[in-house]
Design a protein that fits this description.
4 helices; alpha+beta; 3 strands; Arc Repressor Mutant, subunit A; globular; about 15% strand; three-stranded antiparallel beta sheet
Length: about 80
C-alpha cells in the first residue's frame, strides 16, 4: 500500500466535515489515520480558515475533553475549486 499524500488526507478531511461536524476520533476512523495526523491537519486547515476546531469540555459519551471540527465557507469554496481541477 502506497503512502497517501498530505493533499489527499486534507481533501478527505474536508469532504468528511462538509457532511457535518466530526470529532477527532471520528476523523481518525473515517480517514484510517492516527490522532496526531488528524490533529496536525486540522490545525493547519484552521490556520488557513478552512475549518473551525471547537473544544468540548465534557464529551457526552465518555466525559473527557474532545475536539469537534466543522467546515467554514472558505473550506466549501476550496472543495469546489478542487473539483474543478
Amino acid at each position: 500500500m502506497a503512502k497517501r499524500s498530505s493533499y489527499e488526507i486534507l481533501r478527505k478531511l474536508l469532504l468528511r466535515v462538509r457532511d457535518g461536524e466530526a470529532t477527532y476520533a471520528e476523523l481518525e476512523r473515517k480517514l484510517s489515520t492516527g490522532y496526531r495526523t488528524v490533529k496536525a491537519n486540522c490545525e493547519l486547515l484552521e490556520a488557513l480558515g478552512q475549518v473551525k476546531v471547537r473544544t468540548v469540555e465534557r464529551h457526552p459519551l465518555n466525559g473527557r475533553e474532545s475536539y469537534t471540527v466543522s467546515i467554514t465557507q472558505d473550506g466549501v469554496e476550496s472543495l469546489r475549486r478542487m473539483k474543478e481541477k
